[in-house]
Design goal:
Length: 231
C-alpha cells in the first residue's frame, strides 16, 4: 500500500515559525488518530502525511538529550554571526541549520506505513545515502550513531553529511533530517556537532568541489524518500 502524502516546499523560513507549523500538523494527526481509536477504527485515518522541505536562516538547535556545553558560543557571539539558538523537543544533541542546507520534516503515521521508529530512521538515512550515491559518493551509517557519514569507520576521516533527529508520539513523527548541500560549514566550528568532538562535517559542495544545483538535489531526495517509504 502506498502512503498518501502532501509535499510542501516552503523555501527559506524562520526556524521557530516552521517548528510551530509542523507542531500543528503533528498534533492534528495525533488528535485524529485518538478519535479514530475511540471509534474502533484502529487509528487508520484518511488524513495524509506531510513532507516539508525548507531552508532555515542560521540557527542552532539542541535536542532533549543534548548538552548546552556543545554550543561553543555565548549570546553575543551568536548575535554577531546572525544566528539564534533553540532547545527543542527532538532526540539527539546539537546541530546547525542554515542556507544551502536541505531540511526535511516528515509528519508521517508510521503505523499506517507499517514500520517502527528504528526502521523509519534507517529509511531516512537510506534516502540520503541513495542521493549522494547518484553523485558518485559512497556514504554509510556510523555504528552507534545516527545520520549519514562518509568514511564512517576510518579514524580521523569520518565526516557527517546529513544529521537526523526526530520526535515520535503514537507513531506520528516530526522533525527529521538536515542534509548539507551548499552549506557554509564554518558555522559547525562553533559547536560539537551532534555531541562529537573527534569527527567532522562535510557537504555535497565540498566533496564535489563545486556548488550544486539545490533544486536538482531536492528532486533527488524527494524521489528517494518516495522509494524507501512507498509514498
Amino acid at each position: 500500500m502506498r502512503y498518501n502524502t502532501i509535499y510542501k516546499d516552503i523555501g527559506q523560513k524562520d526556524y521557530k515559525e516552521t517548528w510551530d507549523y509542523q507542531t500543528v500538523l503533528f498534533n492534528n494527526l495525533i488528535d485524529e488518530k485518538k478519535e479514530a481509536r475511540r471509534n474502533a477504527d484502529k487509528g487508520k485515518g484518511t488524513t495524509p502525511g506531510t513532507l516539508i522541505f525548507v531552508e532555515h536562516p542560521h540557527v542552532y538547535t539542541l535536542g532533549k538529550s543534548g548538552s548546552e556545553n556543545n554550543l561553543l558560543l555565548d549570546y553575543i557571539q551568536l548575535k554577531a554571526r546572525e544566528a539564534v539558538f533553540y532547545k527543542i523537543d527532538r532526540g539527539g544533541d546539537i546541530t546547525y541549520h542554515g542556507p544551502g542546507q536541505l531540511v526535511g520534516y516528515p509528519i508521517f503515521d508510521l503505523e499506517v506505513i507499517g514500520i517502527g521508529l528504528k526502521e523509519y530512521i534507517h529509511n531516512l538515512e537510506e534516502a540520503i545515502i541513495m542521493t549522494v550515491g547518484e553523485y558518485g559518493i559512497t556514504a554509510s551509517r556510523l555504528p552507534g550513531g545516527t545520520g549519514v557519514w562518509l568514511d564512517a569507520e576510518t579514524d580521523g576521516k569520518a565526516r557527517k553529511i546529513c544529521a537526523i533527529g526526530v520526535r515520535a508520539s503514537r507513531y506520528i513523527t516530526m522533525h527529521g533530517f538536515a542534509f548539507n548541500v551548499n552549506t557554509n560549514l564554518t558555522y559547525f566550528n562553533y559547536i560539537n556537532p551532534c555531541g562529537f568532538t573527534d569527527k567532522g562535517v562535510t557537504s555535497l559542495e565540498k566533496e564535489l568541489g563545486a556548488r550544486q544545483d539545490f533544486d536538482s538535489v531536492k528532486d533527488k531526495v524527494k524521489r528517494n524518500l518516495e522509494k524507501v517509504f512507498n509514498l
